[in-house]
Amino acid sequence: MVEDKNYDLCFISGGTGTPKLLRGYSVLNPYFSVVVNVAEDIWISGNKLCPDIDSVIYAIAGVIDDEKWWGVKGDTFVTHERLKELGFDEGLMIGDTDRATHIARSELLRKGYTLTQATRIVKNSFQVKAEILPACEEEVKTYVKTPEGWMHFQEFWVLRKGEPEVEDVEFRGVEKAVITEDAGRAMENSDAVVIGPSNPVTSILPILEVKGVRKLLKDRVVIAVSPIVKGKPVSGPAAKLMKAKGLEVSANGVAEFYSDFLDLIVVHSGDRCSYRHEETNILMKSREDEVRLAKFLLGVVEKLLR
Ligand code: GDP
């Protein structure tokens, strides 16, 4: 029984696809670590939003709004509505409980805590046992180049609904970013690193570009799960962004993108892939699907490490 053996897994995550897998994996084993993208973080109404960190915490804690895949299920929007009446349209719909996370984090940062420390306090308050680790402490900002010029990723995705064409993507500030000690240690001490089914360009690449990450990955067993199924992303703008980076929108394109350090990729049944791979149904439409894929992943880990 593969589930009986406790492997130390370190996941690399964005805010939608991988958190589904993490919710499934935490049913099998709540102790793991996750290195999370911070390049979509943004300050709004005085508070720092870390969309990917929060979605990972909320998903594992079982409180995520899984219709939208961000924010807290059943949240109220009293503060957001009142701010609008006061003339502050935040653009993003931020719920009251979700905002408490942002306020607590921002206060902790203002008091001198690191983002890693602030994240630990927040995730502990949700009784999350897994280690949730920002990839770096430095602020990194994702910008996309459109025919109208460069815009912040949140402007492109939330305000403009991902409509403009994308010509290029850049992560401003990443040249100064260094993997945190905690995230580096979690990767180093893991039996395997799992790059979850997240957007390879906006969620994974800004982590790969942080100093120290690629070197750590080269020394480890690395398994990826494709976010692309039958040549299309399950959700979100990955196709546009992969094309902007000159990548084929396919499981094979994802494997090629990670090929410097990848040992194996899990792809959807029937999807073509010329890299070492395993096939299964990688769609997570229910909690059962999430657990089933997590079990399959454990089987792959066991096979590779045997
Ligand atoms: P973001 O931070 O919100 O952009 O989220 P991520 O980067 O973590 O996740 C977005 C990616 O998740 C998209 O490219 C989707 O194709 C992928 N995704 C979403 N749901 C699923 C699923 O059920 N299975 C797989 N394999 N990928 C998924």
CATH superfamily: CofD-like domains
Bound molecules: guanosine-5'-diphosphate
- CATH architectural category: 3-Layer(aba) Sandwich
Q: What is the averaged pLDDT score?
A: 96
Report Rg.
18 Å
The residue ranges in which pLDDT falls below 50 over 5 or more consecutive positions are: none
User: Helical region count?
Assistant: 12
Task: Characterise the protein shown here.
This protein is an alpha/beta fold and 306 residues long. It is globular. Helix 1 packs parallel to helix 2, helix 1 crosses helix 12 (287-305) and helix 4 (96-110) packs antiparallel against helix 5 (115-125). Strand 11 and strand 12 (232-233) form a beta hairpin. It has a single domain (2-137, 183-239, 248-305), classed as Rossmann fold (3-Layer(aba) Sandwich). The protein has a seven-stranded parallel β-sheet, sandwiched between helices. A three-stranded antiparallel β-sheet has the order 7-6-8. The protein is 40% helix and 18% strand. Guanosine-5'-diphosphate (GDP) is lined by residues 14-18, 20, 52, 197-199, 202-203, 225-227, 229, 233-236, 238, 282-284.
